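Crash report, auto-generated. Payload:
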Amino acid sequence: MKAIVLAWDYAIPQTDAAGKSVSTEVLMDDEAFNSFYQRTARPLWAYLARVSGSSSLADDLLQESYLRFLCAVNRGQDEESRRRYLFRIASNLLCDHWRRPVAAALDELPEFAAPDRRDSERIDSQAILGPALAQMKPRERQLLWLAYAEGSTHREIAEITGLGAPSIRLLLFRARRKMARLLRRQTLIPGRTK
Amino acid sequence: MKYFCSQQEQVASELRLGRPPEVWDETLRAHIAVCRSCSDLALVAQALQQDRTQTVQAAQIASPGALWWQAQVRLRKGAMERVTRPIAVAEKFALISMTAAVLAGIVWKRNLFLGWLLGVLSLPHSDAVQAGTSLIDGWITVLMAAGLGTVALCAGLTVYVLREKE
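Recovered output after restart:
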């Protein structure tokens, strides 16, 4: 392995420079990343799992999100901007995933996203929330989760989702009204939760 | 139903603090009872916050060390690709140029080439065969064959050397 690197360094002097640029790109060291990961991985996984409706997909997207985050040059200076940047990467990956099978806009995608059986059996709140979330559009789930589960402001949501900030308020209002209607229906008719 | 209620910010801030409606002040609770927009907000936010707490606790996340290592490999690979891209482009350009030159030569001297080919394969005589046969013994054919052989040899050697370096 070392011999190959030496051969390349000898043949192409820029290889060494490229290696150095890699180390300068990594502004976050191993320990800083570890602590950032411990603080953000679980909320990010929850976001991905609830918006996508699949735990296994959330696992894959979580890993890819962090890899892209680490390979990115400009990740933001403070913790909050890094966190937003990470959520933005994850949101883009979700959009890519939804776009892959059919070439349709995110808002035109069907509402259905199969709730994860593993989670719905384990988590009590999911028994009520799961069916309601499954009837929401992916974009609505995304907005609701960011606004009320993550507590993001409209400006932050706009930054993460790429939507226009002025439209967030109206979209959230509609999504919230729909979700509330579904939740009330679920609690009124408990048999329909399964 | 109102699109935006004046009390909504207050309701939202109570919810952000994680306080349930039971402990809110009397007027806000009375408002929730009559305002559909705010009651929707309280219902949805509480359900999502509760779900988030439980989902975050249940999340099984991978080791950050493995991710860090994978990212380093990806960065290194990306840097190497950036550096070797000009070589790859030059290699492709050389290959395309060489193929184009050979094809152009064949097309340009197609009658001679066909004749020579038929002669080599000992196919029945024709005008082209006669023209080609006359050249088989000629020095042009020898040069052409030698040139093609040299080009093929050089191309093979170049590809071999580049592969070895990689």
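Post-recovery validation: Chain A is about 75% helix and 0% strand.
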